[in-house]
Design goal:
With 171 residues, the chain is mainly beta. It has helices spanning 56-62, 106-112, 152-157; strands at residues 11-14, 21-30, 36-44, 52-53, 68-69, 80-83, 88-91, 95-98, 101-104, 119-125, 131-140, 147-149, 165-170. The strands form three sheets. Strands 1, 2, 3, 6 and 7 form a five-stranded antiparallel β-sheet that branches. The longest helix has 7 residues, at 56-62.
């Protein structure tokens, strides 16, 4: 609907997890009172239900009180309007702040002594901004590479770009 009948997403850049990518396509996300983010990148592959993951600051800008949820857990969440070059879609639900989490394969889970849905800590050493994030959700799956997902606000708060050491710890 957003990109026209029969449209397919175009890969702009592969993401770290195999098969996932940032698409060439972007959408405008419109919140209450017509507040908007004009160019939000679409990620693929597509899912059965539409979902918008935003950072806390984005929620404030849009006027949306973002619930923190695991990706895919969208029941009862706020909605928004998505505007593409060929159409508009009103989402009744699906706007979340993604819960900080760590993806890992079975071998990594065994190494860390955790299992799917366990909780971990992430210690980021970056000069005067050393930070420990608590309660990272563990998501274990086959063919998954070890990767931590923080939102941009969390990454900026701990100055992740200048970190000289990052530790993943059992909780």
């Amino acid at each position: 609907t957003l990109f026209g009948p029969g449209a397919k997403l175009s890969v702009a850049k592969p993401l770290y997890q195999d098969g996932f990518y940032a698409a060439e396509e972007t959408v405008m996300v419109v919140g209450p009172k017509r507040r908007m983010l004009p160019t939000v990148r679409v990620l693929g592959p597509t899912r059965p239900e539409s979902q918008v993951e935003l950072a806390f600051t984005d929620g404030i800008s849009l006027g949306i009180d973002l619930p923190v949820r695991a990706s895919g857990d969208i029941a009862g969440t706020p909605g928004c309007v998505l505007v593409g070059p060929k159409g508009v879609v009103e989402l009744k639900q699906g706007v979340i702040r993604a819960e900080r989490h760590v993806h890992m394969g079975p071998a990594d889970a065994e190494f860390y002594g955790v299992e799917d849905k366990s909780r971990m800590r992430l210690r980021v050493h970056s000069g005067s901004c050393a930070t420990t994030f608590e309660n990272l959700l563990v998501r274990v799956g086959r063919a998954i590479k070890l990767e931590v997902h923080l939102d941009t606000d969390e990454g900026n708060a701990c100055d992740i770009d200048h970190a000289d050491k990052v530790e993943l710890l059992r909780q």
